[in-house]
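Let us work through a complete example step by step.
Step 1: write down the sequence.
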Amino acid sequence: MKLFPMYQEFFAVKTALSGLSADPETAVQSPEQIKEKFFKRLYVSYSENVKPQNVHFENRSGAQVMKVDYEVRKPLIYNLDVVGKFSAEATFGGKSGN
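Step 2: predict the structure and record it as C-alpha cells.
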C-alpha cells in the first residue's frame, strides 16, 4: 500500500510530460515556460515529491529534452524505509517532431 502513491505520482509525471510533448506550442517555448507548464499539470495531480531542482533540460540534435529525476523515501516498518528512484524524459521540437 505504501508504494501505490509513489507510482501514482510517477504516472502523473509521465502523463504531464506526454501532454506537453503532444502540444505543438511547447516546441517553441523556453525551458522556463515548459517547466512552468509542467508544474501546473503536476499541481492538479497533488504531486509533492517532484521539485524544480529535479527538472533539467539539455539540447539533443536541435531538440530540447526535459529530464525529470527524483527519489521518494517512505517509512515502511520500524527502521526500514522504501526508496523509489524515478526518471522520465520528453523531447520537444527538433527532428523527432515532438
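Step 3: interpret the result. Strands lie at 55-60, 63-77, 80-92.
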